[in-house]
Specification:
Blueprint: E1 6-9, E2 14-17, H1 18-52, H2 70-76, H3 79-112, H4 118-130, H5 133-147, H6 153-176, H7 181-189, H8 194-223, H9 226-231, H10 238-246, H11 252-299
Antiparallel strand pairs: 1-2
Helix pairs in contact: 1-11, 2-11, 3-6, 3-8, 3-10, 4-6, 6-8, 7-8, 8-11
Amino acid sequence: MTDSPTILDSGSKRRVPGGVRIRSILGTSTSLMFIASVYVFLYSPLAVTALFSFNESEIQGLPIRDLTFHWYSELWGNGPLKEAMLYSFKLSCVTVLVGAVFGTWFAILVDRYVKRGTLLLQSALAIPVMLPGVVLGISLLIVFKAVGLSPGFFTIMVGHATFVTPIIMFIVLTRLRTMDPSLEQASLDLGAGQLRTFWHVTLPYMRVALFAGCLLGFTVSFDEIIVTFFLSGVDVTLPVYVWNQLRFGFTPEVNAIFTVISVLSVLLIVVATGVLTYSSRRRLVGSVVVEEGKHESQKG
């Protein structure tokens, strides 16, 4: 009598029972189906919204009468909408600039000068990111009213910076912790000061991570609605404008707005992820080249 059918595993060069192989294939297929179902659940609402943004009918339902770009053309003729979009863009740019400065500063302080309580300090800086938007928005509103600040551009910028700064800080900090300390030490030994060392050594090393963090921070700031709702004044951002429009009725024009925001957000995230991946690959290749060079020098 022979055992159950076996197959040859080319990678390990050994025979594996056919039943084990079948169970492995079934397990892999089940895992892939589960992962695919999660993505379908997350992105199907966005896909439906994008589909209805091309529907010629004002009725939000099936069947689709005809495909059209009419609702997108209506966006360009909407003056308040364009003002809100420009306002959001300026606000996000200023927020990212502030977040980049303070986030980089905090990352350097935590990496170079804080030896004890690092985990506690990082947890404290991450609290604004983890807090619900309602809690953060109301808390900031109470503080601004107490000091006499009226809602407007500055208050929204400060509110956004509270969670954009930690995002940039953690990305830059991760990059700094892979840096060889001898690079900065060599610069200081050659006579360069702290500022010149930062500008010519530290900043070029972490600039890719800083750029990716700024892209992610811009996306988060541009899409934020809860904190902005409590801190905005007369001028509103694009998400708050869309929210106000929903109270007067849901139109296909809103579908077009949501589709544009979603596409821009996904593009920014993809670019940031690609930049980080490219940086990691370059760092890996550079490490391999250095190790090979050391090996060759030892042989010589």
